[in-house]
Specification:
By secondary structure, the protein is α/β, with parallel strands linked by helices. It has 14 helices and 12 strands.
Length: 354
């Protein structure tokens, strides 16, 4: 389920303050220790390349993911966009899963701002498309067609871990056809922790990777794009062109370094709580979900009563993302065991009284 946000005119004040926010892991708050690191950060001007914390974060992330160089950007959307534009020229084409963020949640930026065509490949409920789909979509060298230049993957996809051998196969096939590869790794560390694999192993066959810091890692904002020096150099120029050149960004970068040092392994707690929530809601009459898709920190619910459930939870101080009969619940570092129990009790109470 793609995430859609209310229009500005629809954003009213809730009658009950939100005490448990399950809309996304983007709502995470920096801890007291992270705030202290930010307050004490030494800073410089990053456009001049002399902010020590930005430089350290870029190097640390590149090392974590086994790549040559890193680039700190304000958002994952800008990171993905800069990467696509660094790989592709105007009029060329990117292949991407139809439910991936680049395809459906970034306002078609690669097409609008980069004049790069998007060829969306159909995916299953776990976010997978097959090698045969990809190869069939690669255009011939015919001036009637755009030149296919880039394959974009994503991991996790709506909380689902992508099979590592399949990713490697897709990347190998793409490279055999002369395509570069990019990974939207907004929640890549969730996949790494869930599989007990080094993050670099998940992307060893991928050229460039975008890693988000502002979700489960708890950083206020920012993503790091990593890859070969030549591509990252192009992306740095594009970052400036897109308005992403930052000055004393070390205040945020220091939080990023802290998160990479302290907040990766704790993602396992989010995964445990998500599974516990799913188990506690199994068998609730009127509520449906696919347990096979409960793999990291997301639970997708279906119910004919969803609008009423979302309203009821809002009155309990619990916020969820609900669209029609579907809802997404995302567990993150601000949701502890006590909050989880409150969510379970509220949902069960609602359906018990219908």
């Amino acid at each position: 389920m793609a995430t859609h946000y209310p229009l500005a005119e629809d954003r009213g004040q809730a009658t009950v303050p939100v005490t448990i926010d399950l809309r996304s892991d983007t709502v995470t708050q920096p801890s007291a220790a992270m705030r202290q690191v930010m307050a004490e950060a030494q800073v410089g001007d990053d456009v001049y390349g002399d902010d020590p914390n930005v430089n350290a974060l870029e190097q640390q992330t590149a090392h974590l993911l086994g790549k040559q160089m890193g680039l700190f950007l304000p958002s994952g959307t800008m990171s993905n966009l800069a990467s696509v534009l660094a790989h592709c020229q105007r009029g060329e084409e990117v292949l991407v899963g139809e439910q991936y963020h680049i395809s459906c949640d970034e306002a078609a930026g690669v097409a609008v701002l980069g004049s790069v065509a998007i060829h969306a490949l159909s995916t299953d409920v776990f976010g997978r498309f097959e090698v045969e789909q990809m190869t069939a979509a690669i255009k011939p060298n015919d001036y009637h067609c755009p030149m296919t230049r880039l394959l974009c993957l994503e991991n996790t996809v709506s909380g689902c871990i992508q099979d590592q051998s399949h990713i490697d196969t897709l990347a190998e096939c793409a490279q055999q056809h002369g395509l570069a590869t990019h990974m939207d790794g907004a929640r890549l560390l969730n996949a790494a922790v869930a599989q007990n694999l080094p993050p670099a192993r998940l992307v060893q066959s991928i050229d460039t990777v975008s890693l988000c810091l502002s979700k489960g890692l708890g950083v206020p904002l920012g993503s790091v794009l990593v890859g070969p020096a030549e591509v990252i150099d192009r992306a740095r120029r594009l970052r400036k062109m897109l308005g992403g050149g930052m000055r004393q960004a070390g205040i945020i970068a220091a939080a990023g370094c802290y998160a990479l040092d302290n907040n990766i392994e704790r993602l396992a707690q989010d995964h445990r709580r998500t599974k516990e929530l799913a188990v506690a809601l199994e068998g609730v009459d009127g509520l449906n979900f696919d347990m096979a898709r409960v793999q990291t920190n997301m639970l997708f619910l279906q119910s004919a009563q969803m609008p009423a459930l979302a309203d009821y939870l809002a009155q309990c101080g619990i916020a969820i993302t609900a669209i029609g009969q579907n809802a997404r619940i995302v567990i993150h570092m601000q949701v502890d065991d006590e909050a989880l129990q409150q969510v379970v009790e509220s949902i069960r109470t609602f359906f018990a009284n219908r």
